[in-house]
């Protein structure tokens, strides 16, 4: 369903500048004034590894028009987790997304407003459960719910690792991944949602717990989406906290 404008103020719209009329490619989440968290596979093509290929929109709602409160930044640096080469994201025709995470340093800090605010990082030992209030958001493709030009949200309760292991098989790693989704049809991440956040309300504070990586038909977020009984898979932020903080400290 369509989100209310300003309800997810950390959402980042990652656009490739040379794609017209709109270069939306992936989502991301603002985690402080100058850093955005996203998925590594958004940058697997040689051209997308170049910082000057990107334009980052924050505080926007409709990706085809400029919204009140919208701020635009460019990219100073892209940091792929452990500088993983693109080839590792596909092995023997199957996706290997164990470390599908990236950091983007903006060329200038954003100004915090009602439309642009950072999301909190989780505590390292946070235990997630199916009763947590969790949502995925993005501008990705939709099926049956109207145009994806506006930011959408989907309720995404945490699913058990046992269930996800059965649906996904060996490519699912509970140590590095989170399985989430309502299991209802037409309600999941899809092409264009990659890198977008999975956020949960924990002790009345919204925190990012994952970034969108792939759907459980095994094809990545470009495959069939929103199938009944098919949750989505997110890279787990908790196990990457040390790396995130090291990179921010190193390059700030």
Protein described:
- The chain is built from two helices and 14 strands, in the order ββββββββββαββββα.
- The protein is globular, with a radius of gyration of 16 Å.
- The model is unreliable at 91-95 and 217-223 (pLDDT under 50).
- Strands 1-2-3-8-5-4 form a six-stranded antiparallel β-barrel. A six-stranded antiparallel beta sheet has the order 10-9-12-13-14-11. A two-stranded antiparallel sheet has the order 6-7.
- It is mainly β.
Mean pLDDT: 85
Poorly predicted parts = 91-95, 217-223
Helical region count? 2
| Topology order in helix (H) and strand (E) letters | EEEEEEEEEEHEEEEH
Q: What level of helicity do the residues show?
A: under 10%
What's the shape?
globular
User: What would you report as the Rg, rounded to the nearest angstrom?
Assistant: 16 Å
Beta strand count: 14
Strand content: 25-35%
The largest beta-sheet arranges its strands as 1-2-3-8-5-4
Largest sheet: 6 strands, antiparallel, barrel
Roughly how many Å apart are the termini?
37 Å
- Give the helix/strand class: mainly beta
